[in-house]
Amino acid sequence: MKIAQIAPLAESVPPKLYGGTERIVSYLTEELVQQGHDVTLFASGDSVTSAKLVPITKMALRLNPHVRDAIPHHMILLDEVRRRADEFDILHFHIDVLHMPMVRDMLDRAVTTLHGRLDLPDLVPLYRAFPDSCLVSISDHQRLPMPPVNWGGTIYHGLPADLLPAKTETKDGYLAFIGRISPEKRPDRAIRIAVEAGMPLKMAAKIDAVDRAYWEQEIEPLVRAHDNVEYIGEINEQQKAEFLGNAAALLFPIDWPEPFGLVMIEAMACATPVIAFRCGSVPEVIDHGVSGFIVDSEAEAVAAVHTACQLDRAGVRAVFDARFTAARMARDYVSLYEDIITGRASPRLTSLVGEGPDLLIA
């Protein structure tokens, strides 16, 4: 199958540091190549892939100090995809909404994975205007705010099985927080939970410009106030295995409708249990009592810390192997691609509703 993967340009594929969407695009692209497909990746020029790379920009936009507006660069991306569209059986977009008008006449070979939150009011009229585009959610919860659209399926993220080695024994005994320093990620909760549990907390997180004031006013004073809390900054993929693998548990104390939460399965790959608040995708990703614990309060999280440390870490890794590998993710997408090509995932599904049951049978 000839497949085009169209990535955002903010980060390289894979990203040098933080970047969940581009990381998933990389894992999917490499696994599709491994499974024998002819894959072309449209991405920034500093991307690294075994697929055919079509470089749209010289480097990732976030790393280019001269870039002020990402939209012009994505227009160039879309024009290049449009120009070469007939070369592919499937066009797989990971850029949210910018391409929607362009693919109106390509619905028989286009699919869009929605990687972000969908509870923003401006998205409702947009998706109502494009109800026939085949969309993929990354959790069932992510779909809830959406108007009726043509869902091709929910496909959970996956990681290469050998990317992060399982560490079934750890002696360091610290709690880990990884991601962004931002209000919705609730690093303040992580700090209070660690303090109450009497355990060290290591925080590996980026600070975006928009969150700089939140860090300086809310989080940095908490870090300075507690000797058991260490902020180590943003880490790369090579550092992640040791950081997560040596942790007793990962704290995922979010306070927003998380579409998926890649760090949860990264921790599970390292055999590290996850303590996560019941938001967004969390109940779909965590097997409560097996790969971690789902909690509703800081008090529950503190209690779960000591229980999580007693979990069978091999069992945590077993959940990852069963549910969250890149090989499984790629197979799921290939199955969807085939459904789109054969018409089983009909782009006209939403407009056929009510026209009679025979029209809905593939």
UniProtKB/TrEMBL annotation:
<dbReference type="Pfam" id="PF00534">
    <property type="entry name" value="Glycos_transf_1"/>
</dbReference>
<keyword id="KW-0808">Transferase</keyword>
<dbReference type="InterPro" id="IPR028098">
    <property type="entry name" value="Glyco_trans_4-like_N"/>
</dbReference>
<dbReference type="InterPro" id="IPR001296">
    <property type="entry name" value="Glyco_trans_1"/>
</dbReference>
<dbReference type="Pfam" id="PF13439">
    <property type="entry name" value="Glyco_transf_4"/>
</dbReference>
<dbReference type="GO" id="GO:0016757">
    <property type="term" value="F:glycosyltransferase activity"/>
</dbReference>
<protein>
    <submittedName>
        <fullName>Glycosyl transferase</fullName>
    </submittedName>
</protein>
<feature type="domain" description="Glycosyl transferase family 1">
    <location>
        <begin position="169"/>
        <end position="303"/>
    </location>
</feature>
<dbReference type="InterPro" id="IPR050194">
    <property type="entry name" value="Glycosyltransferase_grp1"/>
</dbReference>
<feature type="domain" description="Glycosyltransferase subfamily 4-like N-terminal">
    <location>
        <begin position="18"/>
        <end position="119"/>
    </location>
</feature>
